[in-house]
Amino acid sequence: MKIIQKPWIKLKETIDYEEHDLINKLQEKCIREDQIALKLELDYKMGITSENGKIASIQNVNEFMYFDGQQLIGYMGVCSFGGPGSSIEVNGMVHPEYRRQSVFKTLSELVIAEWKRRNSGSMLLLSDRQSNSGQKFIKGTGAQYKHSEYEMYLKEGNVKPLQSQLCGITFRKASNADALEIARQNAIYFNDKTDIISSETIIPNEYMILPEEEEKNGMTIYIAEKDQQIIGKANLQLIAGIGGIYGLGVLPEHRGKGFGRAILIMAIEKLKKLNANEVMLQVAAENSKALNLYKSCGFIETSTMDYYEIKA
């Protein structure tokens, strides 16, 4: 164990390229040493950084970095994928050679203070199921288990759907005009609500996901249609040769027809055309139908991320 000699902490709203590199190197070391997965969303965060990389004044602290001199030895990051009042997700790490010196405790206290200051929704603490230290820390906070996600990677020899399942289905890039439809589908797929958003619903701009802005940040949303009717969607991302599939879903009235498999295969093919070396996705552990679909198409589980909730 290395003793911390010159401790100091940097707090920021966003990260720049230099900080991204430092955090990513620490992440790679922790993953290699601990054989676990982390969900830091670094590349997503880089995408939403302002063009010049500078923020005039900090509104919300999302980046918590603990240094010993010039070396980054601890990091905790906050992600919020919804509008004001939505839950925040927290994941972090400490350099293997600097542990048991209250680095993580110090960062977590700062994160909790920031969460309380925001007066937002609940806070979700994330930990790989195989991380003994992460699980132990979360247990000490009193957080309650909420759900789990499997990370899955596509292996060779994936099962192709019948050609008839693809017949008549188109996959188009979403535009800002589709923002309300995307919000409606997200509500159905992830909040189990089928009627909270209609064509007449007025949604504040801060809650809307604008596809053209998301594409600038590296996430491209595709709308699936058949016979000029929208049947579902998928979000695709390509980072460092790894293609990610997120937010995939089929509308309830179109389920049971093989469309989910067709959309999945079309998403895979899109990513491969973009020269993705690997394809991955994440799925809720309790979503047995989606899990079985992904397995049947050649995806295998590589890690399990547990989510624990602290309520305000």
User: Could you tell me the strand content as a percent range?
Assistant: 25-35%
Helix content: 25-40%
C-alpha end-to-end distance: 36 Å
**Rg, alpha carbons:** 20 Å
Number of domains: 2
Kindly state the mean pLDDT as a whole number? 85
Count of helical stretches: 9
Largest sheet: 12 strands, mixed
Query: Any guess at the CATH architecture of the largest domain?
Result: 3-Layer(aba) Sandwich
Task: Tell me the CATH topology of the largest domain.
Answer: Aminopeptidase
**Large-scale geometry:** elongated
Order of helices and strands: EHHEEEHEHEHEHHEEEHEHE
> Structural class, please?
alpha+beta
CATH class of the largest domain: Alpha Beta
**Neighbour order of strands in the largest sheet:** 1-2-3-4-5-12-6-11-10-9-8-7
Unreliable stretches (pLDDT < 50, length at least 5) are 50-58
Q: Count the beta strands.
A: 12
* CATH level-four homologous superfamily name of the largest domain: Gcn5-related N-acetyltransferase (GNAT)
